[in-house]
Amino acid sequence: MEKSRSGFTLIELLVVIAIISMLAGQLLPSLSVAREKGRQANCINNLKQFSIAIELYYQDYKDYPPWMSTLHPSYMSSLDVYKCLTDLYAGARGHGHVTFPETNDIPPPNIPGAGYAPPYVADIEGFNYRNPDVEACSYFYEFNYNRCSWFHSSHDETDIAQADSDSNGTVTWKEAKMWQMSNENHGGKVPIVRCFWHYNNHGQKVLNLSSMNYNVFTSGPEWESTSY
């Protein structure tokens, strides 16, 4: 009497492995997309928390904070809020927008490739106003106190003179954004905080916190012409 066969043959195992591989190949991209959507939701929550902290600061000082880091610890107790989950460096290398290193709210020596040295020191004096206890920040703060290289290179002398509210010959990022709010029609969408990590790592939209009503909206890198 023949013994009953147990187990699988090599061919059967290979077929099962092939089927599992095909299913995994179909499911993994969906899981990756779902995971990124969850990280975007967390990032939007961070932006909302910043909006509350910024508004509380504004109510106390009648002005915007010089840096997001200055909100800690009085208005923002948790340091985790400064980190976007999509940022693989957890804020240690800044906001990830290499064009504007001066807008990073991290210690200047930690900014990748910044190369800050004379005569550029004057462009980063605004860093003196940030909180050194905050060493990681994934977000781009548009109302910072550093010289706005973008505004000086893209606007004429008349605009620069109008934006330079303290008449010191330098337009800071904050002064540039205030000028935009007063002189350009953007429907209240001038951002105060931006996150580029979803765009950098997954080709998704940039997340922006509006400075006027604290709504979160999406855009491409150039928010002025690509807001959604």
Give a summary of the structure in a few sentences.
It is built from six helices and four strands; from the N terminus they run H-E-H-H-H-E-H-E-E-H. The chain has helices at 10-61, 149-154, 157-163, 173-183, 197-202, 223-226; strands spanning 140-141, 191-195, 206-210, 216-219.
Give a written overview of the molecule.
There is one protein chain. This protein is of the alpha+beta class. It has one domain. The protein is 38% helix and 7% strand. The chain has six helices and four strands; from the N terminus they run αβαααβαββα. The chain has helices at 10-61, 149-154, 157-163, 173-183, 197-202, 223-226, and strands at 140-141, 191-195, 206-210, 216-219. Strand 3 and strand 4 form a beta hairpin. The longest helix has 52 residues, at 10-61. The mean pLDDT is 90.
